[in-house]
Amino acid sequence: MQVHLLLPEAELLRDSRHIGRLVLIVCLGAVVLSVPLLLLLFRNQFLKPVQRLNRALASMGQHQQLIQVPIQHEDEIGELSRSFNRMSLALQESNKQIRTLAFQDSLTGLANRRMFIKMVRREIERSQKHQQQFALLFMDLDNFKQINDTHGHPVGDQLLARVANIIQGNLRADDGLSRPIVSDNPSGLARFGGDEFTLLLRNMESALDVASVAKRLLSALAQPIELKGISCYAGSSIGIALYPHDGTSVEELIKHADLAMYQAKTSGKGNYQFFSKSLATQSLQQARLVQRLHHAVENQAFELFYQPIIDNHSRDLVAVEALVRWTDTELGVVSPGQFIPLAEKNGMIEAIGNWVLEEAARQLQTWKSAALPSIKVAVNISSIQLQQPGFTRRVMALLARYQLAPQDLYLELTETGLIQGQEQVMENLYELHRRGTRIALDDFGTGYSSLSYLQNLPIDILKIDRSFIINLQESNNGLILSAIITMAHSLGMQVVAEGVEDQSHLDFLTAEGCDLLQGYLFGRPSPANDITARLTNQHPGTFRPSPA
Ligand SMILES: Nc1nc2c(ncn2[C@@H]2O[C@H](COP(=O)(O)O[C@H]3[C@@H](O)[C@H](n4cnc5c(=O)[nH]c(N)nc54)O[C@@H]3COP(=O)(O)O)[C@@H](O)[C@H]2O)c(=O)[nH]1
Q: Which residues form the EAL domain (predicted)?
């Protein structure tokens, strides 16, 4: 059976439109509802972790610290977070290494110069705020160069590491140690460079407190240090600057402590010295002196004076000591006692010494060619000159150039120059002696060498320091002089007495059998012409004390 339902077309169309609208509304509703949901999902799953990573990245760049993000997903974002954490750790590690290299001294593990400057800057800010004072100590080892040169750099390095330990071991918690900003080191101690150590002591109420720390460190560093069977005496000198009294900036405080240290060294080493304004003036004067000395070296603005040396048996003038003189156009007369040590410290002694040798040889050749009584010339040699490998060769070439024999030249060296005992010094000394040059040991008695030590060295003449003769009346000087003369003779050396100023000196030295005499009694250092005149008028055995 078939049923035919007849509906009007309009009605049908109306229903289908209604259904269509319904479907559209449902679809639109679904879209409207799902977009925020999808957005929420997108934000939580993707945007938020990426933003978190971005913030962590920015913070890492800004604070340079270790940042770790939580891993909340096991997807690509989770993997990205893991990679970020790994990178942050690696960055932190290399950052630490860079800071260590930049702020820590690799040899001693102490803070380095850069770190120390930061520490002083921080300490200034702190002390300014709390109205406190602090002390900056500048330490320099007294014998480092000598130990390093004699035993080599590995021993030198070991010594520096041991010194760092010794200083640290002698600092106490109540010394007011300033803490370093970076470094595992617990004290405000730094290796400033080479053999220089610096230390900050905060809240120092009185200079006495600082002095007691300095004394403690000096006495610890005065003890022998055993290194691979070698006993080394490092010794140290300390300069101290106080904030704010001696300076209010990092540069000023370091400069003033360094100056005070230099002063401590020049006044006998193994000492401490507080900065004072007069030190600053002295250092300006020194700087000017060094500058004028450079000028003098460039222009060879020196003169040579000669002081007679008399044979005590014949009373003839047998030699002269060449003594350098400098009259500066701005500073006036500057004594060699003042400028020779400066020249040694500032690399000018070789140029001055070479000029002196050349001029002395030229003058001796002039006297020789004038057929005057034959004399020798004694020239002072700095140990720095003797450290030059080509020194002997240059001396021999000079003698040949002026047709002089090696025996015409006496080279005067000081005890300290010899005692340093460097290989090259000894090599030159033995070679010069072997070739016939006579070696005189100058200023004997002012150093620490014993005659028994000196007997192993190629020394022909012993010059007793003038202080023994000038102060002959003082307690044991007569006995000491007599013992030195006897012992030197028994070792086959000739003896020269310097500083013979009056008849009592002459009588004593003659009675003791001293061989050669030098001093104001026989003539002050004077220009070559004076010696020429004396030699011209000299009759054998008549070189008498000069008129007062
Ligand atoms: N490396 C070099 N050193 C040199 C040179 N020229 C000098 N010097 C050293 O400088 C120091 C001071 O020397 P100077 O002022 O020339 O003094 C010498 C004499 O004038 C002085 N003297 C001599 N006799 C007397 C005396 O009777 N009384 C007295 N009060 N002083 C006297 O002694 C100095 C000589 O000393 P020395 O050299 O130890 O024999 C001095 O250390 C010089 O060495 C140079 O060219 N190179």
A: 286-539
* CATH code, 286-537: 3.20.20.450
What is the rounded CA–CA span in Å between residue 388 and residue 404?
A: 22
- The residue contributing the CA closest to ligand 1 atom 41 is 337
pLDDT digits (tens, 9 = 90+) for 358-398: 999 999 999 999 999 999 999 999 989 999 999 999 999 99
Ranges of each domain in the chain: 113-275, 286-537
CB 112 within 8 A of CB 105: yes
**Atom nearest to 498 CA in ligand 1:** 24
Instruction: Say which CATH architecture domain 113-275 belongs to.
Output: 2-Layer Sandwich (3.30)
How many whole angstroms separate alpha carbon 352 and alpha carbon 380?
A: 11
pLDDT tens digits, residue range 237-268? 999 999 999 999 999 999 999 999 988 987 77
Residues in the chain: 548
| Distance from the alpha carbon of residue 525 to the mean position of ligand 1, in angstroms | 9
* pTM, full prediction: 0.64
Q: pLDDT tens digit string along 154-197?
A: 999 999 999 999 999 999 877 766 554 444 455 689 999 999 99
**In this structure, which residue's CA is closest to atom 32 in ligand 1?**
499
